[in-house]
Structure prediction request, 129 residues.
Amino acid sequence: MQANVLLNKKGFTIVEALVSLTILAIVLLGLLAGVLKSYELVVRNQIRDEAVKTAQEILDELRNSNFDNLPTSKSPITRQIRNYSVTLTPNINVTDVIQGQVKKVTVTISWNYKGKSYSYTAETLIRRE
Prediction:
């Protein structure tokens, strides 16, 4: 009779509790890895958006510059994006399309993020006014 009473008790043993906590910890670590990867992608996209904006700003500057003396270099630009400092390095290439009348301007912005190199290229045509 005494043994029957012990077998009918409800509740978790310490082993069951430890197993369930271990499974919960593994699931939470997986979710944390997913959140960190999502954050990394968001920051990478924000840096790319900043590079696109910077390239457009440079192209606008060049469109308003003297046609005969278009600058071919620009110093690196440092921007702060979500507590991450990124250096955007512009490279400007100017080529004649129609001698003395139309020039093709290519602006390439490059940067590094988490040990990888990225770049964005924008082009425009500028004509003599």
Notes: The radius of gyration is 29 Å. The chain has a mean pLDDT of 90. Strands lie at 77-81, 84-98, 102-113, 116-127. Residues 106 and 123 are 4 Å apart (CA to CA).
